Fold:
Amino acid sequence: MTDSPTPADTIPPGAPWVRLRSASTQTFIYDRMVREAAPEAQPGDVVRVFDRHGALFGHALYNPKSRIALRMLNWDDTDVDEAFWRDALERAVRLRTDTLRLDTATNAYRLVHAEGDELSGLVVDRYGDVLSVEVFSRGIWDRAEMLLPMLHELAGTQHHRVEVDERVLKLEGFKATPVYSGELPRSVNITENGVRFRVDFATGHKTGFFCDQRENRVRLASLVHGANVLDVCCYSGGFGIYAKTRGEANEVTCVDLDEQAVEAARKNANLNQARVSTVHADAFGYMRQMHTNGRRFGVVVLDPPKLVFGKSDEGEGRKKYHDLNRLAAAVVEPGGVLLTCSCSGAVDREEFARLAIGAVRQAGRSCRILDYTGAGPDHPVSPRCAESAYLKALWLHLT
Structure:
């Protein structure tokens, strides 16, 4: 029994296509799953995807230089033209504005969440009048000039910044320099549930602020009344400032190794007239010192940067998660709460829970799981892409 004719036998010459070895229901199709491609198919092209029998499977962004050779855009015969992109962006914007009604609580939120919005490789955060864009694929980068005017029209914004991380450039095999709109402000003040933050685009990480923890910040504030709170890897002080302003914590200490992050946390505390202690220190060393000094906290928040960068990234990142959680558990008061987080998409919920709880036990502590949450609803999760549920927030009660 032989396979059906190749796509080259059934579609017009010059139309780029790719044929698979086997079909997949996932957004990411890796290079090993590609059987053949049209000679004219180039990195960044939208290609028609066919299964091994020659039947149309869908459309995707193609990049033979990347391990993720195909980023599926649809699984039907709908053409990927300008109208397709506009419709996808409009659905994403309407989710945030019409369904979630986020503008009633904040002027800062995730406007496009890549695979979660069926726009693989595109992340857009809104900060007031500014769109902060992160690109993760060659195909999206090639279409940024087309997509940006659509986004501004739909969102009612004026300014933008578009950046591609060096790691992405290496993985995707192309070169790019940041793109900034004319008169882009250096920073912008945002309000989230009545708490104010300054987003500094020149010094901030990722898109400038972590909107994904918004609901978790509110949740934390409900648990800290009268407590001493330690916010480890605090970045711009989100959890700590919520704890002080909305939660009426007794004392709040924000710790980060990044000196610019500590300065941002200090400025944000001042912006809210909140008395918060900021410490420029390595998280490991600081928590060891607190343990040695016999210092304990009623609530500890542990929200480190991404430590595991891929499924093949074994060992080092996972060991850091274990060590951080062991040290954090050691400085939580009996009856206190540890909120431990991971933004590593390659570590799923079950594995992260095992890592964290195992570390707590190694610290000689017992715990109960109060809850297990993730990012806010402006970060929708695609059933076709497990990595879109990247954020894990495990709430533990320690005894």
Notes: The CA atoms of residues 54 and 299 lie 58 Å apart.
